[in-house]
Amino acid sequence: MRFMLMVKGDSEPGVMPSEELLAAMGKYNEELMKAGVLLDGSGLHPSAEGARVRFAGGKRTVIDGPFTETKELVAGYWLIQVKSKDEAIEWAKRVPFEAGGEYGEEAEIEIRQLFELEDFGEGPAIDRMRELEKDLAKSKE
Questions:
Q1: What Rg, from alpha-carbon coordinates, does the chain have?
Q2: Which H or E element spans position 86?
Q3: How many helices (H) and strands (E) does the chain have?
Q4: pLDDT tens for each residue of 4-63
Q5: Which of 19, 30, 52, 133 has its Cα between 20 and 30 A from that of 126?
Q6: What are phi and psi of 74, to 5 degrees?
Q7: Within 13 Å, how many C-alpha atoms sit on residue 17's CB side?
Q8: Nearest-CA neighbor of 106 among 7, 4, 28?
Q9: pLDDT confidence of 114, banded at 50, 70, 90?
Q10: CA pair distance 136, 141, nearest whole angstrom
């Protein structure tokens, strides 16, 4: 089972994490790697540097950041492969966030399971997605 652990929040433009936080995150990432569960992970640039594309009424509208509701934004993520949701929760509880640290008095990690192609059953669209997955894997070799 694959899960995404999403760090909630938004950073200020030009403000990078402290060396202390980067070191703690590096240690956590090493633990994930040693356990064989880490698939990917990264931090995201601030929403002030991003954009959204809204689809409504047959139109596409581009909205430039920053976005105000930081509790609803994703500041970074880990993609992990574990045996259960409970195991994903245990990994999330180990993220090195401390009260009063760079993420403030409260920090939040949202945990969401990724769909697998097998979850959708059979059909031409799923067969095509399987072909695309194979092509993507070959292109990474």
A1: 18
A2: helix 85-93
A3: 3, 6
A4: 999 988 888 888 888 988 999 999 999 999 999 999 999 999 999 999 999 999 999 999
A5: 52
A6: -105, 125
A7: 22
A8: 7
A9: very high
A10: 9
Residue 124's alpha-carbon distances to 26, 75, 120, 129, 140, in angstroms, are 42, 36, 11, 9, 25
Mean pLDDT within 133-138: 90
Tell me the pLDDT tens digit for each residue of 55-112. 999 999 999 999 888 778 999 999 999 999 999 999 999 999 875 566 666 788 999 9
What 3-state DSSP class applies to 103?
A: coil
The amino acid present at 23, given as its one-letter code, is A
Rounded-to-integer distance, Cα 7 and Cα 43, Å: 9
Rounded-to-integer distance, Cα 98 and Cα 21, Å: 10
The total number of residues shown for the chain amounts to 141
Domains (range + CATH), the chain: 2-115 (3.30.70.1060)
How big, in percent rounded to 5, are the helix, strand and coil portions of the chain?
Answer: 35, 30, 35
